[in-house]
Amino acid sequence: MKSANSNLPNSIQPDQNEINEYIKEYLRYSSFSNTLECFEAEIKSKQVSNKMLNKQQQSKQIGDDAPRLFQLFKSDNTKTKREINLEKEQKAFNKKYQQILQAGRQIFSVSINLLQLLHSLKETAKNENLSETLENYKIQLGKYHKVIINEGKPEGTELITEQVMHEHKTKLFKNFQDKHVDGMIEVLLSLRVNALQIAPELRKNLVYELIRNDVFNIEATEKFDFVVHLLDINNQSLRHAITSLISVISSTLRGVEYLTYNGNMIIIEKIIKILKEQENGSVTQRFCLAILQKASIKDTVIPTYVHNEMIQWIIQLIQKSINTKIHIFCLDFASATLANVIHTPYTLQYLEKQGKFAHQVMEQLLKFMKDQIQVSVLMHVLICLSYLSKENFAKQMEECRFVERISEFVEYYSVINTENEAAEIDKKTVLDLCAHMFHPKDTSLDNSETVELNELKTEDRIREYENEQGELIFECFQDEVS
């Protein structure tokens, strides 16, 4: 019968001096001082050194009787099944990645051919607008081409130069004066392409540069005429372009302050109006919701949301999603916005005065707990309910059987079956959330700690977060049409 070490290859064994060093290190760590002293003395002796040398020569040829310690130092350790599968998956991903890159290169080849064809038609048409449009196409194509060349890695080493920013702003105003809608769309999309192309860690600085250059001419004029006129133009492509850029700017608190300069909420009002005009789940609606969710971190915008009936609109959107498929981004950002709106002192005071409306909101949110809604939306609903579990709403809580229904939900949710590990984690998160927010001491209507938490300055927390975190996420959707 072969020994336990018969799998050890007959190739050169691990360096014995290295193994000796590991043994000595172990003996020192374990305070085996006498053993260490004897071991070092034996290694130094000429007789033992010769024995070791002979043994090393033998071990180069014979591996069956090698000690198990050698097994730990083998350079060709057997790979686990998981490692082998991961390697296979990695190869498959790399293959698909290369296929996508190749498809991208082919698309650019076709695009370049089309541009050349348009250039040949330009001379015949003698249209100045066509020439400018072609130049803009070439600029954008060049930017996307860099992404393909870099195999998807953003260049991101520098921001848009002052000159480029100024040129974009000048072109944007000229196209606006000339009522050239396609030209405005090109410039707005070009600015956004720059934003998407830049490295994540530099995006915050890019937003600050857009503000510093007063891209919408808000601070220079102390008016919102230009951006309001752009938002009022009834062109779907233009609305997509302008809302996507506003979403970029609203990604920081400073950007929200720029868009609400001097406390003027006209842009927020226009975005709400456009939001409600859009088909549910559309790309433009997603950008509108992204803007409103980001802006909701600033308490001064909340009255605008309340008076423009955003609470009712969001609740209706979640209701519709139960029987109609609506893009998860819309539901996630809408419900997050609802949570931000309800938690503010302004909204809580408003609901306290509007008792009937507060009852309707509470009742509908409680109903959502049993409906088939996305887990992220469910979490936002629970957060909204936690903000309403206050002594000021004791009457509504009693009428809606608030405490009983929360308890029933926890019992029901505790026994639901989960299909996979991710679903199990979601389930645990929801139950942990309930345990934290609806703890027995809170259901007794002693909410002093909750009130204190809610009254913390949201904007201060956001500023602190922005200072610590360098990366922003700019929305980009696969079904966008540029």
UniProtKB/TrEMBL annotation:
GO CC entries: centriole; ciliary basal body; ciliary tip
Gene Ontology terms describing biological process: cilium assembly
Annotated InterPro entries: ARMC9 (IPR040369), ARMC9_LisH (IPR048957), LisH (IPR006594)
One protein family per Pfam: ARMC9_LisH
Designated name of the protein: LisH domain-containing protein ARMC9
